[in-house]
Amino acid sequence: MKKTIYAIIMCMAFLFSGIANAQVTTASISGKITSDTKEALLGVNVKATHVPTGTTYWATTNQNGKYNFPNLRIGGPYKIEFKYVGFNAEEVNNVSLTLGEERTLNVTLKEESKALNEVLVIGQKNPVISASRTGAQEIITRDKLDKLPTINRSLSDFTKLTPMSNGSNFAGVSYRYNNVTVDGASFNNSFGLSSSLGATGTEPISLEALEQVQVMIAPFDVRNGGFTGAGINSVTKSGTNDVHASAYYYVKSPALVGYRIKDNVLPVSEFSNKQYGLSLSGAIIKNKLFFYLNGELDRQETPITYTTDNSLAKSATLQGISDFLNQQFNYSPGIYNLSKYNTQADRLTARLDWNVNSRNALSLKYYHLKSFTTNKPSTSGAPKNGRGPNEFAIPFSSAFYRTNNNFDIVIMDLNTTINSEMSNYFKVGYSRLRDFRDMDGGFFPQVDILNGDGTNLMAMTTFGTEANSYNNKLNTDIWQLQDNFVWNNGSHQVTVGTQSDFRKFANGFAQNYPGAWVFTSVDDFKFNVLATKDYMAAHSGSLSGFDITQFNPSTYGLNPINGGVANIKGASSTSFTQKYAIGDSFPFAYVDVIQLGFYVQDKWTLSNNLNFTFGLRADIPIFTTDLAPNDKVAAETYRDGIKVDVSKYPNAKIQLSPRIGFNYRPLDDESLQIRGGSGLFTGTPPYVWLSNQAGNNGVLFGDISIPSDKLKTLGFTGNIDQLKPAAGSATRADINVTDPKFKYPMLWKNNLAADYKFGDGWIATVELLYSKDINGIYHDNIGKEISTNFVNDGSGQNARPFYTGAYYSDLAVVNQKAANNVIMLRNTSKGHAFSSSFQLQKNFTSGVLKGLEVNGSYSFSHAKGVTDGSSSTANSSWRYRAALNPNAEEVSYSAGAVNGRVLVSASYTANWGKTASTSFGVVYQRYRPFRYSYVYTGDANGDGLTDNDLIYIPRSLDEIKDNLLATGFDSQQKAWEALDNFISQDPYLKNRRGKFAERNGAVAPYANQLDFSVNHDIHIFQNNGRSHTIRFSASIQNFLNLLNKKWGVQETTMYGSSGSPQYQFLSIAQKASSANNYTIKYSMDKTLKETFKDNIGDVSRWQMQVGVKYIF
How many domains does the chain have? Predict the structure, then answer.
């Protein structure tokens, strides 16, 4: 009852607050009006007119001669008029505003008796050198969206123009901590199931509907919140007094894709990518009511590069498996040479803008998306090199799955000018998001079959229901509200605001619900199936007492290399695990959370060239969900004496984020700008990490766990329920819980930058950014026992502690045997990052190069953290963090760190008279595509995991003579020579001899990518001067590969898919134990000579998209 009353009180507080991750979606103009004697003029009438819509705004200067137009729509042009009795009336034209810009426009009026040409207007026309700019950010205008290349017409094609970006990561911070908004509405995947904006990887909103995009890394305006990575803020187009329309069609086909990568000739795959769209805007009532509509259909088919023609998995083998499954189970695994992935998206954007009166403007927006995409089998728990399709493995189509992402979002905002000094901005919205998965074929256990190579085991094929997709659903409902009150009082601009949202999540997920089996070879699988079938036939359909070792494979004419035993060699875990629902039906995990936010800010303008911004923000997360208790878990004690209560989330904690920013332009011509700031940024965690507690509490689901010494009793029947106990029977389970002291992520950011304008409009920028974790996040397994012994791995160091394999649930004084792994979500303060960039840009407005805009930068970051949080599940986030001790707060390189990146973008427009023009755009990048870790294949420390143990890099054979086996070689000396040669040729390993490999310590070779686009416009004019434009366009990704088959080719690791975080070439053959003095023994892959190979995937081939667009 108390909790219900508390929730009601918090909801009432919510009614007076606003959206916690809202961003600024408008711009402003302010300035000071003086006479020629430097006297501030009181009572000057200032009128701002948004020319396209005829919208007018009025202001009057105060006793200090200052005026302010807040909450202006971006773009323009604006006309600003100044009138004062006894002085000449003046106006400033063609003022255009960028997103979040605070334009300063100071005017000196002359008395009526003086010449007009003596009027002085000082206005900042460049968004780079601007009084409102403090921290690192990038603005992408509509002109850039139109002219620069985009093969996918995606937002990420343009956010990469931010110097400190690396994919979707910014300044070394993971994409999971970004906040993506459109018109202030949250569009990012806040639950955290994927790296993209939506689970399907499609764009949530049409690129055609966007007016501007802003990427903020360190904004010291406290109105910007909800992220510790980057705030990616977009604003949609709006209607004007003139009717505008567009219709467009973009296509990519097999004839527009390259098939030659150096000496590799790739097979031609039939596919078709098409995108259709219409937009219409105009005035319903002139100067009063405007509309904008955009509808778009996206139909994509992405070719699959690998088939049995260019993979080690061959047709005859896969066909034999398919025939066997049909014969034994009457089950079809689907086709094995799937040629393409299918993606579809239907998008709608609608907007109404109403100038209610001279003081109020109301806007209503609606966004709709219905989409799905086909996905290859998940890499979660995958054997070495993943499940494919790749050069090693080809999966059957039954192992693929389809993700669906649908949403409807409504946003309303109201801008109010109270008087010449006060204004208010109010926003309210609702988002309904529905994500779910579906699959082809009936339910069948997921089965990985390996290649049968005892010296180099890796995946060969996969079939069955994808292990993470059974009943996988997520319903998200978000209510959001914001209010900002601004008071301009002399040299102070005071903002008081509240922001909040209320989120409801219903998540259906159970990892390995259909079961996840691994067999070392085809014969191992067949042997197990046939032996199981014979045993059940002889025992009235029962598997009780089954033991695969009691059967002879020669009876079936088979030669298995692992005796038909499942899940022990080459698997990601040496045990077998499967989840099951304890109740009668599949349960869902529910999480409700209120996020309250309050802030106050003072922008203090000390002079025309110096201002400070002081702000304080308070964020308060409150969980309102009632979770079921688990009394058995609560009764036990885990590592370090920790007690666990899965029924409780952390209590509400107020997190304060003070910030200070400054902008100083010391020179009279304002050619030099020094800016920066320092402050705390509080974001939201991926809510799936918090939802893990609700779904993995030992009450909704149980875990079947078969240890390695019992795997011989597993017989494969094809029935996903064969091992599940009766409904209502609870066995021990993996438990996820949140530390009661847990706080939302918080980062301390410090930014110092200088912008210098020189020559004929060149601007050079130096940007420095240092950040430090205050509340970082990592996963800690408090359920596994760690011993006081250390593994002998050849290093001679006590650095790798040995795990006994026991669970504290077995060791506790009160022994309920309730839990296996107990993964706790905790905070850490050990992460930090330093990022720097040098940028040079110019817009040529005259001369021979008129129409050319160029922007170049070099960026570097050194970022380290405890974890990258690469998975949505707690167990996977813990297990896939490469480490010496997986439970220690080991600090190492962040996956998103920028290890030296050159970025150049340029566009040029050539006008051929009034009737035609041609624009060209290029984006060049020199960068390292990914970071990775060297780990053993197998379990080096007894934690039961086979792909997370960092290797020791030996200096000599003497160091590892007790560890290195001669498997595959004539002698240990020959094995050492092969290992030594491999280390010597590797740029990372050779410099770390005598040390351990680091998580994400190694980096891929530099890649060079040049994207190119061309648009040709044909203009047809009407008698009234309006024009119709037909635009023909072509956008080419990796243009270098089109010019030469040897150019633009990226490299990837010999083992692992492109961008794989783990590199495995040393295979554990002897695990550490007390019997062998905790000594591991491993073998070297005899086939491995080089670290890298050419990547013959899509990233290395040129691709083109062509289009035609009608514009009116």
Answer: 2
